[in-house]
# Entry
Amino acid sequence: MCLAVPGKILDRQDMLATIEVGGVTRKVSVMLLPEVQVGDFVLIHAGFAVQVIDEEEAEKTLALFKELEQYADHDK
Amino acid sequence: MQTMTNEEVKRAADFFTKEIAKLADGKSLRLMEVCGTHTVAIFKAGIRQLLPENIELVSGPGCPVCVTPNEYLDTAIAYSRKSDVIITTFGDMLKVPGSSSSLAIEKAQGADIRIVYSSLEALEIAENHPDKKVIFLAVGFETTAPTAAAAILMADEAKLTNFYVLSAHKLVPPALRALLTAGDSHVDGFLLPGHVSAIIGLEPYEFLSKEYNIPAVIAGFEPLDILQSVYILLQQIRYKAAKLENQYSRIVPERGNLAACNVLSQVYQEADAVWRGIGEIPKSGLVIRKKYQAFDARLNIPIVVEETKEAKGCQCGNVLRGLLLPTDCLLFGKACRPEHPIGSCMVSVEGTCAAWYKYGAGRWQV
Ligand code: SF4
# Structure
């Protein structure tokens, strides 16, 4: 029930935004995330955008995983 | 955004599992994943099979449907029997057994019960049916509660007089405190719920390390997120440095979502709440503030509710506290199955018993 999915904001009118989630567009409320802008990636839960996805942090996590992946390689 | 190939993921997973085994050094450890979404993710990725035998992952009280007590369901069922009421609810609630019925049974018998994906749909139904009282079953933790609060603010602005909320919202940190105070769950570290944290931020969990000296990490939901989080906990345990860490920084900023928290506290205030199988936990629930009490179903629509009965033999309460595994319950997989659930833990897809039933082929069965 607490499932949340990432989506990209395509358009915004006041507190209603059009969001793309996995190729499908949907309307969600941005009342809980009033500062978001078109182009932002957000986390959507129960019809509301609830958090912005921090792309920089996402890249950092990914970079770390990739680095470890190389360690695992040397281990063998 | 960049991604990783399956092969890369496998190798990174390999790194984590090897390091985890080294850090654990044969010691038996119990880590609790608090959130039902984690329970399902752990099963789907086969994380238990990857971890060394001595590291046990136990599920906690983090499935909102599971912890909702019978009394709440009985109240919703009683409301659904009124001819001037439309019940709007998330789908997971339908099959949850109350004392003697369920919403699914009532619906089959003609009650007007509608599944919604969001509180906004419930609002829409209220707007379209001015002659009916529309009650939204507001269940969920800190991630979901602000969405119900937002609907109340919108109903207030639209001057709707036929929209009501039956709140069973629950708060995660007080439940963790209750588990630790009771002391019988014997948890060596917590994997904290990522999406709850996206709203409340880090501060509400600080007491875990400061007062209880227990390792904790806010975890994401991808297989590598979970493995890295277990690795982080193991490092803390090994070096006896209990602290709160945030593995899910791409979604969880330190301060959470202030706008959502504001909406939440505008509408709701904390109150003691009953958790199924655990009992009353101080300040662990949310009730609607006086200013918005015109939207509180309990205060505005009088109802007589049957006396609560608990399902005989159901161990949900002990499962939710991490004291028993679903497979320890004599009814598991026999009298109690997803198509015929006896307890709430077998209903929601995120319920511990349902997850074990659906995905439970692994080490414990060999
Ligand atoms: S298997 Fe069914 S009866 Fe047993 S604890 Fe789980 S929900 Fe309750």
